[in-house]
Amino acid sequence: MAVLHPSPLGGKKNTRTVGRNFQSIFLMIFTLTMLSGIGARLAYLQIVEGNTHRQRAESNRIRVIAKQPERGNIFDRNGKLLASTRYPRSVYLWPMAHTKPSWPIVGPRLASILDIPQADIEKKLDEAGANSSSLIRIARDLNEAQVTAIKEYENELPEVEIHTEAVRYYPHGTALAHVLGYTRELTAEQLKERKKDGYRLGDVIGQMGVEKAYEKLLRGEWGGQQVEVDGAGRPLRVLGEKQAKAGNDLHLTLDLDIQRAAEKALGDRDGAIVAINPKNGAVLALVSHPTFDPNIFSKQKLTQKDWESVQGEDHPLVNRALSAFPPASTFKIVTTTAGLESGKFSPSTILQTYGSLNIGGTRFGEWNHAGFGPLGFVGAMQWSSDTFFYQIGRGVGGPTLIEWTRKYGFGQKTGFEFASEETKGLVPDENWKQKAWKIPWTVGDTINMSIGQGALQTTPLQVAIMFAVPANGGYRVQPHLLKDNEDAQNWRESLNMKPTTVKILRDGLRKVVSDGTGKVLNKPTIPPVAGKSGTAEAWKRRVKQNHAWFGAYAPADNPDLLIVAFAEHSGGGGGSVAAPMILQIMEDYYQKKYPGKYQKPEAKKQ
């Protein structure tokens, strides 16, 4: 009988079977785990982030070709064009252009053709971001040679596109620079501030003048095309289009003929000329010199010569019509008003004038060093007697004189549209002097202020508003440039002056021109004029170079034109330097308005 023994080989076989089963189970669990992870990730990508990825895919397939709106045109009061649009050719790139393999060829070639550093091009593309779906302008105002070169190398420049765009154009160049202002491409800082308002990289914005003040009206709305492209970025079809909406046209109160005449009259002198309608504050001309050509800012890149033209030591970008200077004897309008309205002096007041007055131990001189004998208010205005007005100022006192200075609008902005450019000027008082000099106000300060000197600072525009008060019968008006600005046109603030005060002011200003320091304006070539001169003491580089002022309006009995001329550091007097400018402008204006009535004598003989 045979005995069966367990085979040792059979034992080994069972161990291997168990090992294989364990490996199979582990592999199955691992596979299931991996599949679960992949499934979960796929579910997350499809469900949670599906919309995001669809948008990314869509943005890679769809491009937006933006179309910049045309800015509104600007016209003068008679419909003459002051600012419009031209259509240069510009170079655009897709933002991801410099990340493509072809960029080592495209970048240097494009930089060479456009004469722009390649780093500058790449910076613009980086600022836009590689995922941006809008074309980015990298150069403007292509000349024919550049256009030809890009076309010649178009096989090497597949990402480069040339488009025509709307760019601001100022047909009168320097003649209207400070009043119209200019537009310029947004800086990076401005873009951060303006993104919420719909501005984008490469957009332009009004930087000063009318362009800045009425940016919202002039700007318009962007349009563009949605274009489907293939994997190589080539356009396949237009998916949709939104027309760009042009900005609103503006009609200004400005009169181009008066503006040109004022520009010519001021010439190469540093200074300003302001012309307004004294009845409603409409600004008819606003000239400042030195000036600049606003068209240079429409270029993609300013040359060294361009920068020198706007960054000179005389500060061409500064609007002197809105900058503050001592008003000199033009201010005697305010001193007269304070004297009469305070009740300290009557309309029949007569005061002796002198070569000088000693007040508080200080000698205050008369401009002719001799005096004019006894004078009333009208005669004192006629000859611009300093010692007469010293006595008026001392009589009314500092607080009353300061009160009337503020009533005339000095020391505050006029309400003119260029709020960010307009200076308030300075009306000094006790608080100001204590803060600035840590010493009290004295009678000497009042004396200086009575003739428009000392720390008093006013702008040519503010001086024009001062002259408008006697011109229109006692009302302060608001200067404005927008023709249909009814609120400004109708704004009149009565200074509640006595009729006798207004009459003395008007009589005195008329006497200045008929028989006094402004006789240069007493001509048959223009209507009867009323006005006042001013010569402000000033120094430039330690040399005395006075400022010259003259303000005048015509016709004297019912004025429709008021002009203030200011010559900075002219070194001459108001009657000899500034008044002839006003004569030149008025002759041009009234001879055009009334042909044959106010001709020059030689013209009549012909």
From TrEMBL:
Q: Name one GO cellular component term.
A: plasma membrane
Q: Which InterPro entries match?
A: Beta-lactam/transpept, Beta-lactam/transpept-like, PBP_dimer, PBP_dimer_sf, PCN-bd_Tpept, Penicillin-binding_protein_2
* One GO process term, biological-process aspect: regulation of cell shape
Transmembrane intervals: 21-44
Q: Does the keyword Hydrolase apply?
A: yes
Q: Which is one GO molecular function term here?
A: peptidoglycan L,D-transpeptidase activity
Q: How does it sit in the membrane?
A: Single-pass membrane protein
> What domain of life?
Bacteria
Coiled coil ranges: none
Annotated compartments: Cell membrane; Membrane
The family database entries (Pfam families) matched by this protein are listed as:
PBP_dimer (PF03717), Transpeptidase (PF00905)
Boundaries of every Penicillin-binding protein dimerisation domain copy: 68-238
Penicillin-binding protein transpeptidase domain location? 271-587
The answer to whether keyword Nucleotide-binding applies is no
Keywords attached to this entry: Cell inner membrane, Cell membrane, Cell shape, Cell wall biogenesis/degradation, Hydrolase, Membrane, Peptidoglycan synthesis, Protease, Transmembrane, Transmembrane helix
Q: Which family does it belong to?
A: Belongs to the transpeptidase family.
Q: What is this protein called?
A: Penicillin-binding protein
